[in-house]
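FAQ
Q: What does a multi-component entry look like?
A: The components come first, one per line:
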Amino acid sequence: MRRKRFWGVVLVLAASLLLSSTFAIAAEKVYINGIDANFPPFAYVDKSGAPDGFDVKALDWIAKEMKFKVKHKPMDWDGIIPSLKAKKIDIVASGMSITDERKKEVNFTIPYWKIKQVLVAKKDSPLTVEKALADGNKVGVQRGTTEAKWIAENLIKKGGKKFELVQYDSAPLAVEDVVNGRIVAAAMDDAPAIDATRKKPVKILGGFGMKDEDFGYAIRKDDAEFLKKVNEGLKKLMKSPYWAELKKKYIDK
Amino acid sequence: MTTPILRIENISKRYGKKDVLKGASLDVNKGDLKILIGPSGAGKSTLLQCINFLVKPDEGRIWLDEQEVHYANKRDLYAYRQKVGMIFQDFNLFDHLTALENVRIGMVRVKGMGKAEAGERAVLELERVGLKEHMQKYPAQLSGGQKQRVSIARALAMDPKVMLLDEPTSALDPELIGEVHAVIRDLGNNGMTMIMATHQIGFASSLASEILFMEDGRILERGTPDKIFNHAENARTQEFCSKITELYGERG
Amino acid sequence: MTVEYGDTMRHHVTIFHTFLGAIERMPESLIAIMDALPYLLQGSMVTLVVVVGAMGLGFALGAPLAVGQVYGHPALRRFIAVYVWFFRGIPLLVFLFLFYFGLCTALDINLSAFTVAIIVLGLISSAYQSQIFRGAILSLPEGQLKAARALGMSDFKAISFIILPQALRLSIPGWSNEYSILLKDSAVTYALGVAEIMARAHFVATRTYQHLPLYFAAGVIFLVLTWVGTKGLRLLEERARIPGYSPQGS
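Then the predicted structure of the entire assembly, as tokens:
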């Protein structure tokens, strides 16, 4: 008897877990911001696990100003545009560069940040940008980024350079490998590069010829009204004193 | 009145190209104990399994209490099987259930009896086969003879009209055979109708109302124990009986 | 000789310095782990719910699949064989993407990444679990089913009351294996944004640049979860054990 009840309990537990997980989806409309939480200082999670960063706080301000609700959801960068198109998320405010290719897929807000692409190397490295990109070297980059694409197309394919491009899940992981000596340099955005120099024995070598880019928030094409709202909020934000505060807190430090 | 309780007519079974049963017929009256003897491969076990359709016969018909059994109809089949108890050579007790639960489960799950009521009946049946004190044990904790007695109690608990016993003692150590025979003898004395396949000639001849000698899928000869063992007409029967007497000791 | 000796000395000194360095760095990495621990442990709850949910779904589907594959109509058996082949053959990540971005969008159903993770892992697990159960059912003596039928049980009753209770007991070691596989597979669901252990370790590492300590901590948490789960299943096996019974002999 005890044995039978025991099996029953196991079954009921399994079933209830399954049901509760399936139906526990909330009903109220909250805009979901998909972030790459591996992109400090624009987007990351703080000590308590709450999303934080320049873009997160900026969008929070905009949402409050424009009276909509927003939640930030950490995601894999590779899947972030598919997620947006599949309505899993509603906006990407997470240091996304505006490119023609992405514009075919999604709409962008007005640009809010100019970003340079730089190479990061060990602090005591004698290399220059030119030497870092010499034949046979290994250079790291975050997979799925504009710099990854640009380097592969312009420096390697068209430029005929013969260094090896190593792809990482995040720029900080590439920085780790710079420190380890597995790669000589990592290509990344300047803001996270500055962040890296504060936390690791690395330095910025300089730009490598890629044109400056603009960051914008990505929004689904059929969501024109939301785009308008966010643009309006973003313009207000950039004129407000809070904008300078954000820059000071997250980027200049 | 001599209308048979169980009528078996012309049962045939083929496995691939081999004819295992070639038209076996048999009438069983209430209280009969029919004993099937014959060399292994003769079809005794197949015949018994065909009788309660654990093996589907290719041909043949069966009547219980003058009602033909339409085994294609599941409900008829399940109802019929409840009335025809089966005892297997290797017991086939349910390994995950205690002796008591083994006896009880048919009453609860098939007959729909309440657990308490079925439990009381199960205790009675176990007492009848002398295993009341072992009722909380699992099959793996019982000896072969005890297992077979539990399986008899399990069959009896369903109130069968006929019992089929397929070499019930052939998997047992010799010293354990006696306790199972005692139970079967007791059943016979209480008027249970039975068909049993066995090699235990001595036991068979002392109890059987009729002996059927099977070979090669056919019932070759039938008659009283005295006739089969001492005055068999068929040469094959004579040969088999003298061999089996040598193997399994003196009859009597 | 002297040169060699000197080299060895220098080598030792270097190792010693590295060792000292490691000790000096120790507090920093320990602090990073301690700081991140509550956040990582929350992640382990997410992982655990995903794994237990997937195992539950895999069980609910796998058990009937196994029964169907052993006792079913030939057409049903073939279908189940294809089902098993399908779900065992596609890599988890591919299946997650197909389901999450493909199927959910095509059918216009909005399931959370968390739910999709449970469903996809559960479907894959059902294929594996069905084979665990199938093996267990096939290992039972044929006479069990015969005896149940002889009592007048329908096949459904015989399977529910006689076959499955025994087969499930025999499946517990296989489950233990399945649990640890699911546990590790669950880390892949981060690709959909499920904030499980590995994802969280990664997040904290990129903020603090303490990659090694955090991945180490994540590894330890996985080990502990594996240990707890297999231990739990062994207790379950012990409780469900039939006295005196061993599946091999009678």
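Q: Is there any commentary attached?
A: Sometimes. For this entry: Residues 48-194 of chain C form a domain with the MetI-like fold fold (CATH 1.10.3720.10).
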